[in-house]
Specification:
The complex is a heterodimer of chains A (114) and B (118). Chain A is built from no helices and twelve strands. With 114 residues, chain A is mainly beta. The chains are: A mainly beta (114), B mainly beta (118).
Chain lengths: 114, 118
Amino acid sequence: AQSVSQHNHHVILSEAASLELGCNYSYGGTVNLFWYVQYPGQHLQLLLKYFSGDPLVKGIKGFEAEFIKSKFSFNLRKPSVQWSDTAEYFCAVRPGNAGNMLTFGGGTRLMVKP
Amino acid sequence: GAVVSQHPSRVICKSGTSVKIECRSLDFQATTMFWYRQFPKQSLMLMATSNEGSKATYEQGVEKDKFLINHASLTLSTLTVTSAHPEDSSFYICSARDRGRDPTDTQYFGPGTRLTVL
């Protein structure tokens, strides 16, 4: 079965610092990749997604992620975080032959200090 | 667009009772909805896939007689936790996909329902 690993469980940054959250998956075939964000007290929202084409995907709120097939990775980045980025971030993978079944990573809790 | 709602947002019940949670797609038709469970400080675990007009598909280890899923219309799926016990206490989240509008089949998530069984 496929798995998704998010190596950083907790990240604390100061405002304006750069952010990179790791996501690795274990599936050798075609995958669709997603990053979701869950702000405190809110539901999961889609940040960005990769299906095909340019491996560098730009999402909302200045986030981007790069799909590196050889490394089975889809890391999330933001050059300068804000206090409002404090949230939990989930990476999710959907194998190309799995219907719509998403497998989620364990999540990374980001705290941005003002 | 692509708004998914859940009701109730929070429920507390006694052990042995049944609890029904509703998931609605508000501005689109969802042929498929998904039910997840999220334990504290853990990720989402898919419980079942609910297809309109047919039986739900349960993930391994999920008791289908305990977690009854009904997807009677294109905008509503319900999850009933039968004979709830304290170990069923969790955060239940549904999602839906809007295949008609979004060919990428992105899932849109509801706000979740926190179930506490005393």
